[in-house]
Amino acid sequence: MCIFCKIVNKEIPNNTVLENEEFLCFHDINPACKIHVLIIPKAHYDSFDVTPPSVMKGLTAFTHQVAEKLGVKQSGYRLITNIGNDGGQEVPHLHFHLLAGERVGRLVGEK
Ligand code: 5GP
Ligand code: ZN
Known about the structure:
The chain is an alpha+beta fold. It has helices at residues 3-8, 53-70, 84-87, and strands at 16-19, 23-27, 35-41, 77-80, 96-100. Strands 1-2-3-5-4 form a five-stranded antiparallel sheet, covered by helices on one side.
């Protein structure tokens, strides 16, 4: 089972921001800026590349709720999803990084 599935199953603790039946948002263990959270479907999909559009629709609405809860709608935020080796994906379970709380650099995560 992947590490994020273990988080969903509460085998690994997490600092939850928002949760519903299908989706979970929690703080990244190694934040890249002031606010760095991860947004995932509870069901396992290896990456964005294999995630059905129907799931992305729900994830979009959930992400709007996360931005509201974090209070970053006005100030703005960045969403990133890494896909596969060249995308720099480390955890093989679809996740969006939401970065906020300060002006983020042009690129995040240099080589
Ligand atoms: P990726 O490189 O796959 O796009 O991002 C994986 C992210 O997951 C990284 O930012 C990393 O800090 C985070 N991460 C890895 N393991 C854990 C964990 O056990 N708990 C939390 N909260 N974040 C994790
Ligand atoms: Zn998983």
